[in-house]
Design goal:
- By secondary structure, the protein is α/β, with parallel strands linked by helices.
- Among the domains are: 1-72, no CATH class; 110-185 and 245-409, Catalase HpII,  Chain A, domain 1; 570-710, Rossmann fold (3-Layer(aba) Sandwich), CATH 3.40.50.880.
- It has 18 helices and 18 strands.
- The chain has helices at 87-97, 193-200, 216-224, 229-235, 283-292, 296-306, 322-327, 361-366, 385-402, 483-490, 494-509, 514-524, 529-539, 587-599, 649-652, 655-666, 678-684, 700-710, and strands at residues 110-119, 138-147, 162-170, 173-180, 250-251, 256-259, 265-274, 312-320, 347-357, 379-381, 576-581, 603-608, 614-615, 621-622, 626-627, 638-642, 671-674, 694-696.
- Strands 1, 2, 3, 4, 5, 6, 7, 8, 9 and 10 form a ten-stranded antiparallel β-sheet that branches. Strands 15-12-11-16-17-18 form a six-stranded parallel β-sheet, with helices on both faces. Strands 13-14 form a two-stranded antiparallel sheet.
- A hairpin with a 5-residue loop joins strand 13 and strand 14.
- Helix 2 (193-200) runs antiparallel to helix 3 (216-224).
- The longest helix has 18 residues, at 385-402.
- The chain is globular.
- The relative contact order is 0.09.
- Bound molecules: CIS-heme D hydroxychlorin gamma-spirolactone.
- CIS-heme D hydroxychlorin gamma-spirolactone binds at residues 104-107, 110, 144, 146, 163, 165, 178-180, 185, 190, 193, 253, 335, 368, 370, 386, 389-390, 393-394, 397.
């Protein structure tokens, strides 16, 4: 007997056909489509009016025709073949088959949000860029954060650089500040970019590893390109495993130019500083987060913004003139170098607030097209050869990805100011471009005039003098490859240095070719002997002879601004406590703790053995957001465990609860313990080992002390290695 199946035209659940309701006539007697009918009388005047799928009782084709039944294709007979005549079906499958566009060749995985930039200090003295014209001026922005190496579907906590690209929709056109969370880059000349990217992506003969630099080809390339050494120190540091997009810095990397109304130019570097301060995870935690929640960073951003906890960054500029550039030990055009904040202080000029998540990830985050060459009047390029190369690359890549020269018309890319040009037609032209004449000069404007005169209102390129022979050459001033890497290393706290050593050991340990490890350690000897020695020791190899630097290593002042930990903010704001609650837990203690953490600006996520929640001492059920099996402690900045009076045995028997505590301990987290947790602690083998950062939570005084401690750093003194 065949199972009963729905007949063509029958809705499978409701058993009744979903009939299209006829649209009412909208015109005042004029026939639809006649030449005399005014467009506004015919509906929407040509703009696509897309309803959310569920918002209409009737589904339509892409061309607006009501679809009779979207659940059964048109068949000849009950069990017969599907008919070519089912055009609605064909259109649906046709569209589906073409849903994917090429992912970005780098920075494929990313997440973004809308925001606003508010200028807090006028920069009119140095730039005529309208975005900095006066304090209080607001400019709409869109930001996309990303990892670099992984594919679109990779995980968020790869050890990698993070992209930090900002589109300012200024009133003189879009300004795209396409930066990273690291202020320097691997290479000096854009001609090496494809090689760099090919080395870090999956190896082409095997297709792995995904989203990671821990493999032979990457270390082969960077060890052969000593200019990359400085950047590897950053990517081996905690900067490459940020806790949140909200808690990382951003940098424009290159030296740009500001140009003021008088046509005077100064050099400028851009810095984003997170208001929440910087935070990173530890590597062992990152590895586990990638399994527990591959979307950790995007979820974090989405959750914060939708909760009204809008992340903010201060924009700072380092402005300097030619005289400083000439005196500085390094070439300011070399993107493998930074200018220490101690030498040129950062002037804070505005604040960006991300306050709106996207409505549609594809339309906005996937289709946003950043281009370094998008600069408004008042901002110009320097001759940094990496920047010059980028200015070619970004236009090309958008055509490849978005498929049409008209990508600037997509809502997320469209400037918020009017556009006026004679670029016409092309695939997917959505603008009904007005006017009879599409050329310049023309006299159809009414004026009988010749070509428009070049004015001072447009983007006037800074008239920098250029001299010299045409040659393929790397400037002498670009030859020092190690001094700033050394400065970075020496500016880190001992804990951060430990992490850098562990990261090199981990990554080089994944290289199968011993000669690559040796070459890299030989280069590291030029950065610091102790660093190289510790990495060699960690790899279990003899210390190779140092490589010969192209230029002598210059001893520079330590720059405390380069350390995350030395600049940590004393706050739990924007961070998350994982509160594991056992049955019978003290209801008052749970309430008190939750309130105190929220008052400190943090978020509490309740976890229980079962997602249904825990029954508290007062008999009430506390709803859980997560079951402990799906919420390992790596997902939280700190944890508290409030057990019931049964010695915590309910939790002690739960392997995930045991891991919850052990991992939190291993990751140096501040731990709160309330109720009878002895059995759980004993089951993890931690009895007798709990330290100063494992605090009781129960009484009001204990809760206050615990929440105060949450604002501090992890307990780095704990004798574990993660
Ligand atoms: Fe790039 C994307 C940042 C060097 C070529 N880059 C891209 C994105 C960021 C950066 C954040 C993602 C933008 C988004 O979210 O859509 N890139 C940098 C930084 C660099 C850098 C900070 C050095 C200072 N990039 C660089 C070079 C080249 C490129 C030298 C080529 C010569 N980058 C691209 C690209 C991408 C890109 C291929 C891929 C997708 C896209 O542009 O839109 O054109």
């Amino acid at each position: 007997m065949l199972a009963e199946r729905s007949l063509p035209g029958t809705h499978p659940r409701e058993g009744a056909p979903r009939m299209a309701t006829k649209k009412k006539a909208t015109t005042t007697g004029k026939a639809r489509g006649t030449a005399s009918a005014a467009p506004e009388e015919l509906g929407n005047g040509g703009e696509l009016h897309q309803l959310a799928g569920g918002d209409s009782p009737v589904m339509t084709t892409a061309h607006g025709a009501p679809v009779q039944d979207d659940n059964n294709s048109l068949r000849a007979g009950d069990r017969g073949p599907t008919l070519m005549a089912d055009h609605a079906f064909r259109e649906k499958i046709f569209h589906f088959d073409h849903e994917r566009i090429p992912e970005r060749v780098v920075h494929a995985r990313g997440y973004g949000a809308h925001g606003v930039f508010e200028c807090t200090e006028s920069l009119a003295d140095v730039t005529r860029a309208s975005v900095f014209a006066e304090a209080g001026k607001q400019t709409e922005t869109f930001v996309r954060f990303s990892t670099v190496a992984g594919n679109l579907g990779s995980f968020d906590l790869a050890r990698d650089v993070r992209g930090f690209a900002t589109k300012f929709y200024t009133d003189e056109g879009n300004w795209d500040l396409v930066g990273n969370n690291i202020p320097v880059f691997f290479i000096q000349d854009a001609v090496k970019f494809p090689d760099l990217v090919h080395s870090v992506k999956e190896e082409p003969d095997r297709g792995f590893p995904q989203a990671g630099s821990a493999h032979d080809t990457f270390w082969d390339f960077v060890s052969l390109m000593p200019e990359a050494t400085h950047m590897t120190l950053w990517t081996m540091s905690d900067r490459a495993i940020p806790r949140s997009f909200r808690m990382m810095e951003g940098f424009g990397v290159h030296t740009f130019r500001f140009v003021n109304d008088a046509g005077e130019s100064s050099f400028v570097k851009f810095h984003w500083k997170p208001v929440l301060g910087m935070q990173s995870v530890v590597w062992n935690e990152a590895v586990k987060i990638n399994g527990a929640d591959p979307d950790f960073h995007r979820r974090d951003l989405f959750d914060a913004i939708t909760a009204g906890d809008f992340p903010q960054w201060e924009l700072g500029v380092q402005v300097f003139d030619d005289a400083f550039a000439d005196e500085f030990d390094f070439d300011v055009l070399d993107a493998t170098k930074l200018i220490p904040e101690e030498l040129v202080p950062i002037r804070t000029v505005g604040t960006m607030t991300l306050n709106r998540v996207v409505d549609n990830v594809f339309a906005e985050i996937e289709q946003v097209a950043f281009m370094t060459q998008n600069v408004p009047p008042g901002i110009d390029f320097s001759n940094d050869p990496l920047l010059q190369g980028r200015n070619f690359s970004y236009l090309d890549t958008q055509l490849k990805r978005l498929g049409s020269t008209n990508f600037s018309q997509l809502p997320v890319n469209a400037p918020r100011c009017p556009v006026a040009h004679f670029q016409r037609d092309g695939h997917m032209q959505t603008s009904t471009q007005p006017g009879r004449a599409a050329y310049e000069p023309n006299s159809f404007t009414g004026d009988d005039r010749g070509p428009r005169e070049a004015g001072s209102d447009g983007h006037v390129p800074f008239p920098a003098p250029v001299e010299g022979e045409t040659r393929r050459i790397r400037a002498e001033s670009f030859r020092d490859h190690y001094s700033q890497g050394r400065q970075f290393w020496l500016s880190q706290t001992p804990v951060e240095q430990d992490h850098i050593v562990a990261a090199y050991v981990f990554e080089l340990g994944k290289c199968e070719v011993p000669a690559i490890r040796e070459r890299m350690v030989a280069n590291l000897r030029n950065v610091d002997e102790s660093l190289a020695g510790r990495v060699a020791d960690g790899l279990g190899m003899p210390l190779p002879a140092a490589s010969t630097p192209a230029a002598p290593v210059v001893e520079t002042e330590v720059s405390p601004a380069l350390s995350i930990l030395a600049n940590a903010k004393e706050t739990f704001e924007g961070r998350k406590l994982g509160l594991l609650v056992g049955d019978g837990a003290n209801a008052a203690a749970v309430k008190r703790l939750t309130k105190a953490v929220e008052k400190a600006g943090g978020v509490v996520e309740v976890i229980a053995a079962k997602v249904g929640g825990a029954t508290l001492s007062d008999g009430a059920t506390l709803e859980a957001k997560q079951a402990v099996a799906g919420a390992p402690s790596v997902l939280y900045d700190a944890v508290a465990i409030l057990a019931g009076p049964d010695g915590g045995s309910g939790l002690a028997d739960e392997p995930a609860a045991r891991d919850f505590l052990t991992d939190a301990f291993t990751h140096y987290k501040v731990i709160g313990l309330g109720g009878e947790t002895d059995a759980l602690v004993a089951a993890t083998g931690l009895d007798g080992k709990l330290d100063d950062a494992c605090l009781p939570v129960g009484t009001a005084a204990e809760t206050t002390a615990y929440v105060d401690r949450l604002a501090g750093p992890r307990h780095w003194d704990r004798s574990v290695t993660a």
